[in-house]
Amino acid sequence: MVAALLLVILSPPFLILMTIICLDGSSPFYTHKRIGAGGKPFNCLKFRTMVPSADRMLGEMLASDSALAVEWAATRKLINDPRVTRMGRFLRKSSLDELPQLINVLRLEMSLVGP
């Protein structure tokens, strides 16, 4: 109920963000497998914050730069990651990249927790 209301209220910014991300290339959504209640896997939705070829780009970067490879091995993150788009940096800072997870809540794959 709450997720449906939030989606209705947030649909204008949701559509604007989708359009802006689409202008940057490919799909506005990124999905990854997560484990839900009862150990059941589901596809968690997020707005795409990286270039479409991010996995290939990461492999090339790690192969050519040993300092980056060490940083990645230690934290699984890269400071100033070049794979993140300008819009992606904004979405991550504001946590708006998580907005599509309301769809997962409506599908009963996730739940809203917290204040």
How would you describe this protein?
This protein has 115 residues and is α+β, with helices and mostly antiparallel strands. It has 2 domains: 1-49 and 84-115, no CATH class; 53-83, no CATH class. Helix content is 50%, strand content 12%. The chain is built from 6 helices and 2 strands. The protein is globular and about 50 Å long.
Annotate the secondary structure layout.
Blueprint: H1 2-9, H2 11-23, E1 29-35, E2 41-47, H3 54-64, H4 66-75, H5 86-94, H6 101-106
Antiparallel strand pairs: 1-2
Helix pairs in contact: 3-4
Question: How much of the polypeptide forms β-strand, as a percent range?
Answer: 5-15%
Please describe the biggest sheet, giving its number of strands, its sense, and whether it closes into a barrel: 2 strands, antiparallel
| Annotation field: number of helices | 6
Could you give the order of the helices and strands? Answer: HHEEHHHH
Q: Mean pLDDT, as a whole number?
A: 91
Distance between the termini: 16 Å
In short:
With 115 residues, the chain is an alpha+beta fold.
List keywords for this structure.
single chain, 2 strands, 115 residues
